[in-house]
Amino acid sequence: MNLLQAKGIKRTYGSLQVLKGIDVTVQEKEVVAIVGASGAGKSTLLHILGTLDRPDDGEVFIENTNVFTQRDRDLARFRNEKIGFIFQFHNLLAEFTALENACMPGYIGGGLKEKDIIARGKELLELLGLSDRLNHLPSQLSGGEQQRVAVARALLNKPAIVLADEPSGNLDSHNALDLHQLFFKLRDEYGQTFVIVTHNEELAEMADRRLVMQDGLMLP
Ligand SMILES: Nc1ncnc2c1ncn2[C@@H]1O[C@H](COP(=O)(O)OP(=O)(O)OP(=O)(O)O)[C@@H](O)[C@H]1O
Ligand SMILES: [Mg+2]
Asked: Which of 33, 153, 168, 189 has the fewest CB neighbours in a 10 Å radius?
């Protein structure tokens, strides 16, 4: 089944055409890597696939919803429920613990009760090897641990798809490999679908498909 389908995506900043008509489809349970030179438009595309930004032209379907036909408020709810994000810099909130950070998408929305949100947050942090770090603040965690908290946060609402932008860009090679293996474990054991923008060739090679972007286009 096509979980995500993007058709004819274009995006212009001023006179600069950053995306020139991109088609992408992602199947359920697929891990798709997007690679390409700096400035090729990878992050711009990922933001649009994640509905954080609207394209100038083209459509994105996620689980058969034509996402950009929704009003901003509905789109925000859709995004919080259906899409998990992992960024290069984890964006954890400094004054909240690992568990509170992981639980944040549940508190924003998703329809779970507080006790179920906390149970899910704990379950995910345990799965990610952080059961003895629940009450640590981000500043008390290593870079790899912080990024695993960000993974737990991305998964909290059981999203249809997780979008990651250079998730291991800030990690040493050991922690990067651990994180990459975790993505495949989540896919194999839970059927989680991933689209990952990366400069890491090892990760791109592990993926089910490696898509290459160049100058605002997807290479055939
Ligand atoms: N908000 C913006 N306003 C103007 N130009 C932008 C904006 N965002 C991105 N761009 C430009 O669009 C182009 C593509 O940027 P994008 O961030 O998508 O590249 P990228 O492939 O993710 O690169 P990198 O590998 O360095 O992260 C760049 O030339 C960038 O300067
Ligand atoms: Mg980028």
From this structure: 189
